[in-house]
Amino acid sequence: MRFTGTETYVATSDLTTAVNAAIVLERPLLVKGEPGTGKTVLAEEIAKGLGATLLTWHIKSTTKAQQGLYEYDAVSRLRDSQLGDPRVSEISNYIRRGKLWEAFSAHERPVLLIDEIDKADIEFPNDLLTELDRMEFHVYETGETVKAARRPIVIITSNNEKELPDAFLRRCFFHYIKFPDAETLQQIVDVHYPGIKHRLVEEALRVFLETREVPGLKKKPSTSELLDWLKLLVSEDVQPETLRERDSRKLIPPLHGALLKNEQDVSLFEKLAFMMRREGRGG
Question: Per the database record, which ranges form the AAA+ ATPase domain (predicted)?
Answer without folding.
Answer: 25-183
